[in-house]
Give the backbone structure.
Amino acid sequence: MLRKVTVFDGGFGSELERRGVLAPVPEDLNLTDAETVRAIHRAYAMADIISTNSFGLNRIKYRGKFAIEEVAKAAISNARTAGKKVFFDVGPTGGMMQPLGTLTFEEAYAAFSEVAQLTKDDVDGYIVETFSDLKELKACVLALREQTKKPIYATMTFDRTCRTLNGTTPEIAAALLENLGVDALGVNCSLGPKELKPVIERFLAVAHVPVIVQPNRGLPQLIDGKTQYTLTVEDFMAPMREFLKMGVSIVGGCCGTTPEFIAELAKYSGQEVEQPEPEYQTVVTSSTRLVTIDGARICGERLNPTGKKKLKEALLKGDIDYLAREAISQEEAGAELLDLNVGVPGLDEPAVMERAALCVQEATDLPLQIDSSDPAAIEAGVRSYAGVPLINSVNGEGKVMDAVFPIVKKYGAVVLGLTMDGKGVPRTAEERLKIAERIIARAAEYGIPRHRVMIDTLVLTASAEQPLVKETLKALTLVRKLGVKTALGVSNVSFGLPDRPRLNRVFLAAALQAGLNMPIMNPMDGEMAGTIYAFRVLSGEDMGAEDYISRYAGAVPSVPTATAPKAESANASPVATLYEAVRRGRKGEARALTEEELREKQPMDVVNGVLIPALEEVGRLYDAGTLYLPQLIAAAEAAKEAFAVLQEKFERTGEGRGKVVLATVKGDVHDIGKNICKVVLESYGFEVVDLGKDVPIERVVEAVLREQPLCVGLSALMTTTVPSMKATIEALRAAGCTLPVFAGGAVLNAEVAKEIGADFYTASALELVKTIEREVLGK
Amino acid sequence: MNSFDLEKGILTYLGFHGEANEETRARIKDILPRVIAAARFRRSEGRFTALPFFLQREPYLKFLSGCHSVVLEAVTLGGEVDLLIRRISKEDMLSGFVADACASALLEAYADDAEEPLGEERTYRFCPGYGGSDVRDVRYILESVKAEKIGITLSESGLMLPQKSMAGFVGLGKQARKTCGECMLKEHCAYRKEGKVCFAK
């Protein structure tokens, strides 16, 4: 496609530095030294677009002395003096978003939204730049898009590995940004132009909107407070000319570039360049992983409480970690994306969905399929999702589509449409095709193109609707002709019949042949996953059968297997007794050996006769310096596994040794120490209520009052967070809590602990257990 | 990067001050490649011939006396490593602990390597928090070297994020070796009790 070249201005900060203007808050210069700001803008007047001096102007980052509104208005009017189009420059908040940091999506969104409200009437567009975190960029683009239809150009910074600091690739950035409706996308800052070439190639291979490139003037050197750049104008221009030839149509400069550089670029303004037109593909992503829905992609179905008692219980109890573990084991078993459904009667589905989606994204980087029939829950799941999610689902009913398509559009999602409507699932393939056509057409009316719609032709059970199984398969083939990708919940087919996996496998193979792209299935079923791997060989997707051979070379044929064994137990000879398993830290063997012990002994005898002595021995060796921390933890984990088995036998008589509430205090995110304490406490039979890290004071108080534990353990690693520990203890006392408080962490000692009001200081996890036994249980 | 030093570093972070057991070694062998794959080492430095204001007090002055210039630096492994550690911790706690130690040792090793071009006549890397200095001085170093460009931010409580990040400085013009004198853990240190140190001599 032919596009006309547009030229942006060059570096602003480096121009200030060159003029000897030092400003801790450069945005304030818009008011305090408007002359200099204007002079720089005017020096760039050969460009087509001037960006305002407002990079750090958002309420999270800005620490200047004026009102944001005032600075924003001044920034725009200063830029206007160059007589060119003015784009408002929006940089990141400088805060670290969850889950790495503590900044929430809504906080970032509100900050950007404020910027948009203050500026939308006065600017010609927005240049959103230097982002590393895809989620923060999403918050920004969403906030701007909600306020204005003016152009939004968005760029991220990439390193030599073609990833942003947080691991996002050009393809992932392009997929999300295009779906969110930006008008141009690309790369800025980062490196010099030459080093950016691979990034630009990758953008051009997937982008359908103009690609923008604003490189640095090479890598800077900071000497005596001055930033020095080495590239000459010609060094800079040679690769830039090449980029124009490749199809980049918006160019400018970032750090270190000066008006001399932009004057050279401006010679190309208005010239035509030819941007490649890549085919549209159906793509879902997390912030670091992209899955193209072609061939056969495995969507894990296990995060869906329907018919899964344990998951249902976990959701009701708020045991989010259970979800994380389920997610990880599906990933290990070969799932490429994960379905997430939290529909349990009596739960606040939107709230649970939001938390669950965050938790699963922290546990795995597989893209998610947000699965709900409640539009509010869908929106809660996709809003802060970092990437392009798949939404499951809409159907042919007008009111369902009208409720869900606006969410798909707004958040840049892909949507799965079910070929049914108010009248149920049609019997024939042709009728289902009609519904599919209707869904695709209605999606288009909402601005959702065909490649972002997938169709599920619906599996009915072979036991009840035997003749219709073939219709589902036929419908797949018909629907694929519409140019959309397909999905099926495969295992429904066998409901009500014996040996379900057998039917599932054969049906899966048939469905793949009929055109199925995304089976929603149990990846833990090794035979199901194996069917896919085999199909990929037969269909030619797995070139040279490389993947297949790597998985199955040396496999014993025709023995139905579970998923591949984990590496953990691979390199150690087995142990014979539970005592040895704990002593040597063999978690993998602890479960079976505990069950063996239980054949002859009472649970309590296993605890007192085996587990406690084994732990005592480990503790003794640890104190003697013969065993080290990893071995202590391994032993604790093995004992914990054994306790889990025993717990099932105890019938929940409350016969444990009591509860302990643990938290890493507000402001501190170091939780290794607290986690070690948790495992060791659990290995001694204590029940631990783990509040996590960076825990707000109120949450500690509320949990302690609710749980009424034996005692409270607080952890802090930094001198700067000790005051937060003190405040937490004070709040506990003020709330009338007289329970013993234990303090621990690298910067604490007995004196500091006493000073901040803790009852005990313990230097290690083992000491914590011993002190609780001695001082609290009175042993 | 010297892989012997790397492993020694990892074992040190894990608390070994003697021979490590086979299981732990096997676990490191399994986890270290995952950490290396997730790591995106970045570094930003600034060289100063005049001491920046925040270094013009003890214990920095003493540490830098005899140096003709100072190089401020910030390094990070990036956010993916943080997430990886958390993910591995959810698989099991010990592996998470090992992953954390691998990442810490890797960051040190990369940072050491990156200092090689500064020449032989240099001190070791001094980080605010050592020797009774104020850990909050990290803020000034991050600002001076524009560490936000390599993705390091400071939380309200003064934590660097991503967690596997360091900020410190190296004096040029003299050599200085590490000692235990500045360590806040020296009272409880298991190494010292055995007459050993936790760092490479």
